Amino acid sequence: MRVLLVEDDEPVAESLRRGLLRYGFEVEWVTTGTAGLAVTTPYDLVLLDLGLPDTDGLDVCRALRRRGDVPIIVISARSDETDRVVGLEIGADDYVSKPFGVREVIARIRAVMRRVRSAEQPMGPQRYGARLSVDRKAARVWLDDAEVALTPKEYDLLAFLTEEPGALMSREQIMEAVWDANWFGPTKTLDVHVAALRRKLAGAVTVEAVRGVGFRLVVEPVGRP
């Protein structure tokens, strides 16, 4: 996933850039609104500071929104309610006030992207291979023609992993997306839930472990015995 970061404060930008890279994002960093609007390489989300040296970030937000529906998260020292309301009304998808932690920004990005993907998804169940169906609107799962009884967290874990089948997700990414951005406890609970999914969905999907990194969900090919 590629992020456009428009931020003139170098320490803030460097901290964000390092954090995003650590979580697997690609980052293009620019320091002015003009440079942000001039970027032509595709990106999936914008992190936009309002206090830019050459123009008001709200004007940049308006211009970006006129161009398309790319998600925009405002990151700003302006914590006044009026600025927050204006930012959201002109097209920002979320607003994070400085100071903030990188983990919070990552959690906000993932929440915004989940909303975007949910809005883009067709009505009704989505199929993964020949046997598994996931209905995200109803939060229900079927294996062949039988509904699978999943706990709420088992469902959330499956829904997250099926957003990008085959993609390697770190333990930290999964914990923040499925449990909580402020989770500081042991990640043993993740292993327990992965084991439950493997047992309940055996033959339809495989949850592969990558030692020291995380997990990826692999859909079994159609026709495999």
Low-confidence stretches: none
How large is the share of residues in beta strands?
15-25%
Average pLDDT confidence is 86
Question: Percentage of helical residues?
Answer: 40-55%
Total of helices: 8
SS class: alpha/beta
The gross shape turns out to be elongated
Instruction: Give the strand line-up of the largest sheet.
Output: 2-1-3-4-5
Largest sheet: 5 strands, parallel
Helix-strand pattern = EHEHEHEHEHEEEEHEHHEE
What is the radius of gyration computed over CA atoms, rounded to a whole number of angstroms?
20 Å
What is the rounded distance between the termini?
34 Å
Number of strands: 12
Q: What is the compact description of this entry?
A:
This protein is 40% helix and 23% strand. With 225 residues, the chain is α/β, with parallel strands linked by helices.
How would you describe this protein?
It is a single chain. The chain contains eight helices and twelve strands. It is elongated. α6 (152-161) packs across α8 (188-200). The chain has helices at residues 10-22, 33-38, 57-67, 81-89, 102-120, 152-161, 171-179, 188-200, and strands at 2-6, 26-30, 45-49, 72-76, 94-97, 126-128, 132-135, 140-143, 146-147, 169-170, 205-210, 214-219. Helix content is 40%, strand content 23%. A five-stranded parallel beta sheet has the order 2-1-3-4-5, with helices on both faces. A four-stranded antiparallel beta sheet has the order 6-7-8-9, with no helix packed on it. The chain is α/β, with parallel strands linked by helices and 225 residues long.
